[in-house]
Amino acid sequence: MAKATNKTGKNSKKKEPITKDSVISLYMEYVLEHEATPKSVYKFCKENGLSEDEFYDFFGSFEGLRKDIWNRFYNLTIELLEKSPEFESFTTREKLLTFYYTFFELLTANRSYVLFSLKEDAGMLKNLEQLKGLRKRMKSFATELIREGNEDKTVNFLKQSETIFSEAAWLQLLFILKFWIDDNSPKFESTDVAIEKSVNTVFDLFDNTPLERIVDFGKFIWKEKMQ
């Protein structure tokens, strides 16, 4: 195919507009190719044909960019859920399950970057700085779920605490995230089982139902840790 030329006969190539998503993509590619984070915004921009002004139009630092990557994982999950016509008719338990399945499918599609970013500081749970935005969004999502569930309960003492449930959902997400990081099963099937069992356990605890599922969940975790 002939290349486009300008009036002077030189090859011309229109530069793609710089967007927030394109900067994020360039950063993730850089990390995976170099197996290290960029040393400076200047060097990162120079290597990728950006000006520093273009970078700072969207992010004030690499720390802010890393946080936004997790926010994007969350936002894309919600967008996918909202596109499903069946989602609104789901129970709160089903909605949380669907959220986790979708969220971890997105993480799996970006597993190499996620593993690098969480293991970079040698202790994923010791440094949760990059997950702060995700924590806020996850707790907000869980709060909406428990409010929805409480609307169906006419007796006040049966209604559940939004604060406790949202914090439990966040801790649950961290647990599943750690489980997924260590999961060596084909297609991460064990993570899917962990999601189902942990969600059922949390809802059973909040609904004061029999403890069979809690015992079952404990046995599952013990089996996985012993393998």
TrEMBL record:
InterPro entries: Tet_transcr_reg_TetR-rel_C_sf, TetR_C_23. Gene3D superfamilies: Tetracycline Repressor, domain 2 (1.10.357.10). Coiled coil: none annotated. SUPFAM superfamilies: Tetracyclin repressor-like, C-terminal domain. Residues 95-221 form the Tetracyclin repressor-like C-terminal domain. This is TetR/AcrR family transcriptional regulator. It comes from Gillisia lutea.
